Structure formats: C-alpha cells, structure tokens
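Slide 14.
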Amino acid sequence: MSAGSVLAVSAGVFVLAEAAHWRSSHRRLGDYDVAGPRRRRSGRHASRHTATMRTAGSDQIIVVLGYANRGQRPNGINRFRVRAGLRSIDPRAQSTLLIFCGGAVAGRTSEAHIVESYAREQLGFTGRSVLEAQSTTTWENIANALPIIDRELTPATTISLVSNSHHAEKARDHLWQMRPDLARRLVRGGDYRFGEHTLVKPIAAVRGLFALRALDRENAKYAAGH
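Slide 15: predicted structure.
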C-alpha cells in the first residue's frame, strides 16, 4: 500500500471515529426548559435530537462515572473522565455539584475516592462534591446517584453524565429507563472534543458502538415483552 493510500485510510478512520463520538455525545439528551420550566418535546425519541437546554443559569449536577482502577493512583481513563467532568462546569451556572461515582471494583479504594482526590489535589477543584462509593456497574452508578440528585433537585437543575462519549450515552439510556422525569434534564457533558485522543478514539468507537447496539437490542426485547 502506498503512502498516499495509508494517509487516505488513516484520514477516513479519523473522520469516522470523530463522527461516531460526536454523534454519541448528542444522543439521548433531554428536553426540559429550565427557564420556564416547560417541556418542549416529550418521549424518549426527543432525546435523539440535540438538546435545546443550556447550563447557564441552571443548578448543575455533573455525575462523573468511575472506571475500574487498580491501586491508589487514577488510571488514564479515570483521569480523562475527571478532566471531562471539570470542563463540564459552566461558570454561568447558579450552582454546581459534582457526584463522583464508583466502588472498589479492581482495588481496595473506591473509584469515587480516587477520582475526587485527583480532581482536588492534582487539578485544583475546590467546588462542591459528593461521593457515591458503592456501585460496581454503570446501572448501579445511576441508581445510586438518584437519591443524591433528588435531594439536590430544583426547578432549574440540569444533569450531565460524564464519561467517554459512548459510555456516557449508555448511562443516559439507563437514566431514561429509571427516571424519565430526570432524563428530560440531561445536557451534554464535556466528554467530546474534536481531535482529542485520536489514537484511542477509533478503538473506543468500535467498542462503544457494539455496546450500544447490544443495549438497544435489550431495550427492544424488553419493550416487546411488556
């Protein structure tokens, strides 16, 4: 294969990976107008559109989903998720709360403690946060965060679920299944940036798309049975 062909293939892979991550970051979002509040659209299919909500003036709740972590230092995936969580903060918001999620899945220390320590000690985060340190799956991440969200909920609350783009979409789907009333408050987090992690994105896109297709099949099977 010539150098030109390799370059063309590489460019194609880059474009497809970027498109997959961008699309995933815009799916299964909400339709709740915190300025009203009123609902502009209804139903789960509304989440296929780009959310019209904005975090300016809202009470932000940002849920950072942990990843299995050996030892006390955050691995690369958890470092990325924390950075994505912090860049989800809108300085124009009325208030912001970060919920760090994750139990001790691969080590003795919970993912929640590891990522919060990284956010505060390494990245200088000084805002409000709460730890959810019991969950071992994405479903449990969302389920265990719900009591915290309910406690903090105001008419102006927006919710961001932060991870990599495809995993965050999966988490948003879980919230739609558990609590559609809260899912309507979903806004994009800071997980997607063009040109970031170009070597990792193609692999993550393939894995993420397979996982989401499996999730959609499970949802369809469940819906058919009910």
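Speaker note: Helices lie at 3-25, 76-86, 111-122, 138-152, 165-178, 180-183, 201-225.
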